[in-house]
Amino acid sequence: MDRTTKIDFNCDLGEGLNNEHLLMPYISSCNIACGGHAGSPQIIDKVISLALSHNVKIGVHPSYPDKENFGRVVLEMTDLELQGSLKNQLQLFKERAAMQDATIHHVKPHGALYNLIAVDEEKATLVSKVVQQVFEDVKLYVPFNSKIEKVAKDFGIEIVYEAFADRNYNDDLTLVSRSEPNATITDKEKVVAHVKRMFHESKVKTVQDNEREMKADTFCLHGDNEKAIEILKNLHREFLSY
Question: What contacts 101, CB < 8 A, 6 or more positions away?
Fold first, then answer.
């Protein structure tokens, strides 16, 4: 990202919280659930329409087909089963977007799948193949220094480095498990400090109190963060001139 331009904030949307209309004015890209962990054709249509009206870049947010666990558990599936599910999710979204003549900007896997492809080259390859099967030209949101970053580049898929504004990191740049009490950052000023360090210094302070290199072109704020609206408004004020 050109550091002279506005900082890019994204949110995971269409996940059943019905807060998209509150979040949309403060973000510049979004990731819309497509039926795996959440979402339906009707919700997809609604969120795409909102994104178009706010000039927000539209992304697909596929996951393990697991609404019970909100896509946050690695399922025991064969590669063929996972490939089929992801392809169906992406195809559904592609069809709904076409109905509104909406451009799909990117794909960002969700939850357990996102974390898995960061460290598992085989699953990263599977996801990259599915993306290329469904889309001719989309970007892929990926964590810095991950397996999916390297695999996607080999596939010729344009990557966008993503970091999390409201999540803490370990020394190996994995996200702190949601089972830990310090996984999520809910204090708006701590979120600002977290983002500023990554944006200006390309570094992140880990929960082990070390600094690690971190590249980020877009910063995610989870829509289900209990302070999401308050945090986003504060980020918007802090970075308005960027």
Answer: none
Pairing of strands 203-205, 218-220: unpaired
User: According to the model, what pLDDT value does residue 2 have?
Assistant: 38
For the chain, percent helix, then strand, then coil, each to nearest 5?
40, 20, 40
Q: Domain residues of the chain, as ranges?
A: 9-164+217-223
Secondary structure of residue 61 in the 3-state scheme = strand
- In tens, the pLDDT along 134-160 reads 999 999 999 999 999 999 999 999 999
| Topology adopted by domain 9-164+217-223 | TIM Barrel (3.20.20)
Mean of the per-residue pLDDT values of the chain: 95
Torsion over CA of 48, 54, 57 and 59, rounded to 10 degrees? Answer: -30
Count of C-beta atoms within a 10 Å radius of residue 237: 12
Residue ranges with strand state E in 152-239: 159-164, 203-205, 211-213, 218-220
Record the pTM: 0.95
